[in-house]
What we know:
Elements: H1 14-34, H2 43-49, E1 57-58, E2 65-66, H3 69-85, H4 93-102, H5 115-123, E3 127-134, E4 142-149, E5 158-165, H6 168-174, H7 193-202, E6 205-209, H8 212-225, H9 250-261, H10 263-278, E7 285-287, H11 290-302, H12 310-334, H13 343-360, H14 364-382
Antiparallel strand pairs: 1-2, 3-4, 3-7, 4-5, 5-6
Amino acid sequence: xxxxxxxxxxxxxxxxxxxxxxxxxxxxxxxxxxxxxxxxxxxxxxxxxxxxxxxxxxxxxxxxxxxxxxxxxxxxxxxxxxxxxxxxxxxxxxxxxxxxxxxxxxxxxxxxxxxxxxxxxxxxxxxxxxxxxxxxxxxxxxxxxxxxxxxxxxxxxxxxxxxxxxxxxxxxxxxxxxxxxxxxxxxxxxxxxxxxxxxxxxxxxxxxxxxxxxxxxxxxxxxxxxxxxxxxxxxxxxxxxxxxxxxxxxxxxxxxxxxxxxxxxxxxxxxxxxxxxxxxxxxxxxxxxxxxxxxxxxxxxxxxxxxxxxxxxxxxxxxxxxxxxxxxxxxxxxxxxxxxxxxxxxxxxxxxxxxxxxxxxxxxxxxxxxxxxxxxxxxxxxx
Length: 383
């Protein structure tokens, strides 16, 4: 693999590679379940049919010990907690990021562990959509495959993340009333491919990753939460994640942020929806070219996108609005003739304006204009 010119390797063959990894994972899981001394805590075990003579272990509470009947009750309550976080309709890309921040899975033996979200921000820089097809598992959904880089200390060179967009069928059906010619007036409420793609990426989805973190720590949560796009896992993670913390691995979290904000991902989905609009049956396939994948990966590697929670994005939006409002006020003030202002008002206005300037990174001219506004307002109040 030429990592210099192809940061994420070859696009060609990625589906076969992902299928091979999934087959190996399924075979490993089947062998573990059928082993004479299987240590998998099954669905029936958690429901109360567990035989204590098996003496299976858990790390619930931070200490490795035998599972008790009380633990089974705790496991069931943990499952209910996971399910309560997700609506019946599913989970969105932004919700995945928010849950990773509010309910992180951390290593209790490592006080400095930042969880999956922290590792996604520091270690995973690229997430490129490379192919899509209508889901064989859910015929009303669209499966999009992403390639991501691996962390520096990983044995892998890249990872495969599958995202299932569940709004595809609805969007494709709505576009069936969208005209493909320029004749006549636009049909009311008809969607363009870009509008359909935007709604799809903001809608509910499921996901899976080929990494060990997903396989052993998090796939069970996705299965019981209803947002799993891979092999279902019904063995409770009694050792690795008995508290059912976390939601997605670092590779998935990087993909989720690209889905939320990336114009390139939106463009990929728009091209898919354009094909659906022109198709006879809405069953479409799309694949990025090697050049497209390389260019996007190189761009992402050079300047990785910040992974932000809803709260962080909201705070930034409010700050931008406030800054814009101050800039508009400064512009208006600059066009008005100045009034004579008392010295005390000028000093107070200067201090307040400089504070606002630092807070919102305003230019000297904007600070000066705001200072005049505040001084005049103070003078008027004194009068």
